[in-house]
Amino acid sequence: MTQLVVVLDGTIVSISLPQAQLELDMTDVQRQWVVTAYALTFGSLLLLGGRIADFWGRKRTYILGLAGFGIASAYGGLIHTGNELIIARGLQGVFAALMAPSALAILTITFPRGRERNTAFAVFGAVAGMGAAVGLLLGGVLTEYASWRWCLLVNVPIVIIVALAAAYLLQESKAEGDTKLDVLGTVLVVTGLGSVVYGFTKAEEGWDQAAAWIFLGAGVALLVAFFGWQARAPHPMLPLRILNRTRSGAFLMQMVAGATMVGAMLYLTFHMQIVLGLTPLHTGLGMVVQTVAISATVPVVTRLLPRFGPRPFMIIGPLIAAGAMLFLTRVTVSGSYWTEVMPSLIVNGIGMAMLFVPVQNLSLLGVDPHDAGAASATGNASNQVGASIGLAVFTTIYAEVTAGSHEPAVLVDGYHAVFRTGAIVLFIGSIIAFTMIRGTKEQLMPGMDRRS
């Protein structure tokens, strides 16, 4: 339920954004930041959230995150300006950064190895894959029949139920030994990621903008400083021992998944509503085929994973998804959802499911229990940072092509550019898997057997 809420909230407001933009009189830049504020605060604070969970207690941190997330959601559903909505989304991201790594760390500790672990992570990965599409569908239903505000308010009863269940069902656990937080590391990674994303946002006004290059350069420098500090910090937020070759490859693959599933799919929903004229409900329903494709593919991949290991799926899956993105570059102003959009969603769902099933498990394989929260946070952070940077890049490319025009033909050209870029990102992801995910299936996922 936690993974569903976390991923769902990355996309649920996407369907409602056109209506929220009209009601709150938001600019296009503010519209983008409604999505980016959540992904950026979530991604940049996840490492800190993971360490808090390890040291303070995973169950305690988890319940605190749930409570704060519910309060932030209630605030977001009651605001009256675009800036307030952006603030509410940022607060959602802050508390999601507490509950998400806690949940994944609890899963890692509960299922340390073997067949049950494979099944648990297959379910977790499937929910991660389906959550984005479920968010689009639920967002469509709520926007059509209630209000865009319910895309935020719907979280309140969910988190109350989950928090009550957690209080009774979960056992407390925490890391032993050093339990000091890395304050400097937190400042470096948060400001670094924020500067990079803001730099891409400024680039929407043109790459000749000095501010864009200043923020991008500063962000890269801060992130380099962050990794340098982690190598010698007495209590690192991200212990570099976590970043072996295979695990680093899995984290990079999660960035690729976040960039395409949030960034590129957001622009597909804009095409379906603004150009094809579909209602929010019909747009959400139209995205369900991707969820169905993911749901149908996950059990097949789960059964085949013990036989072939994760590497082939992590290479082939992104290539299949890239093909779906290239097919989307054929969308037209007068086109049909059935012939131009739906086939791509089905193929993309198949390709992404092949990635989702192994990547979560692989990114946490062999992690010491002391570092479970940090490792799970790094995986989640990779996905959210990929989403925020990917959305900023896609928005910059879209803005350059459309140059402020609202003519349907020009908008479609902008969408084509976004989808082509998404295909390139997925192709790069396949290369990452080919070069970094190395070893036999027994080495990559020990304890697996064909019964798994």
From TrEMBL:
Q: Which residues form the Major facilitator superfamily (MFS) profile domain?
A: 1-441
Q: Where are the transmembrane segments?
A: 32-50, 62-80, 86-109, 121-141, 147-169, 181-198, 210-229, 250-270, 282-301, 313-333, 345-364, 385-405, 417-437
Pfam families to which the protein is assigned, alphabetical: MFS_1 (PF07690)
Sorted alphabetically, the keyword list is: Cell membrane, Membrane, Transmembrane, Transmembrane helix, Transport
Q: Which InterPro entries match?
A: MFS, MFS_dom, MFS_trans_sf, Sugar_transporter_CS
Signal peptide residues on this chain, from the entry's feature table: none
Give the UniProt subcellular location, in the record's own words: Cell membrane
In terms of domain of life, where is this protein from?
Answer: Bacteria
Task: Report how it sits in the membrane.
Answer: Multi-pass membrane protein
What PANTHER family does the record point to? BLR6921 PROTEIN (PTHR42718:SF46), MAJOR FACILITATOR SUPERFAMILY MULTIDRUG TRANSPORTER MFSC (PTHR42718)
Q: What is this protein called?
A: MFS transporter
Organism ancestry: Bacteria, Bacillati, Actinomycetota, Actinomycetes, Micrococcales
